[in-house]
Amino acid sequence: VWRPIPFQLSASIKLLRYGSAIFNPPQEPSGKTGFGIYYKQPNLAERLSLLWHQPRFVYPGVAEDILSIKNVDMYGNTGRLGRSHWNKLTRAQLKRAYILEKFKDIFFRPEGLSTRESKCLVVAELLCRYARVRCIDDNPVDLLPICKRFPDLVDGVLISDWSTNFLLRGVNLNATPNFHVVGTFHKAVYDLL
Is there a contact between 4 and 96 (Cβ–Cβ < 8 Å)? Predict the structure, then answer.
């Protein structure tokens, strides 16, 4: 999805605050971690976040590539909360790009989990159904821990943005051979087209 500023601000702040530990796989969460959609009245901060996310759209070239992919089960794995207003916004953005029907399912982040924890749990669930999973993301803080947790089962493809070099400086990418960085979504899926 297109963002007004192609930069991982939150990830950059986490890197400065916590260092490279942000790239470690998360601990297994305890307690219930269901992925259902629910209603909860948004507070002011969430309303502002919804306004910030509202104008986002799927790049036209990305939509064309997604529509061209055949015989591949596609899932959305977002860090957006599983609240009904995020679900509605996300599905509307995908529907406007005519690609909503290409997704078998879209997983939203359960309350109480970080995006990193949620995305790792989704990949673990998908690996119960599939022998191998390709994860495409624009945030190395979300993707690198998945690649480290499932080194022989996941192909991770990071689509770079303005913050990629800053975030990955000092990270030994040779230690995670299933993690790849590309410049465009097209390069992430070219072998599937």
Answer: no
The C-alpha atoms of residue 34 and residue 28 are separated, in whole angstroms, by 14
State whether the Cα torsion 36-41-44-49 is positive or negative.
positive
Q: Quote the pTM value.
A: 0.83
CA distance 12 to 164: 9
Which phi and psi angles does 184 have, rounded to 5°? -140, 160
Per-residue pLDDT of the chain in tens (193 residues, 90 and over written 9): 555 557 787 888 888 898 888 888 887 755 555 666 656 777 787 778 777 777 677 887 999 999 999 999 999 999 988 888 889 999 999 999 999 999 999 999 998 899 999 999 999 999 999 999 999 999 999 999 999 999 999 999 999 998 999 999 989 999 999 999 999 999 999 999 9
What does the H/E/C string look like for the chain? CCCCCCCCHHHHHHHHHHHHHHHCCCCCCCCCCCCCCECCCCCHHHHHHHHHHCCCCCCHHHHHHHHHCCCCCEEEEEEEECEHHHHHHHHHHHHHCCCHHHEEEEEEECCCCCHHHHHHHHHHHHHCCCCCEEEEECCHHHHHHHHHHCCCCEEEEEECCCCHHHHHCCCCHHHCCCEEEECCHHHHHHHHC
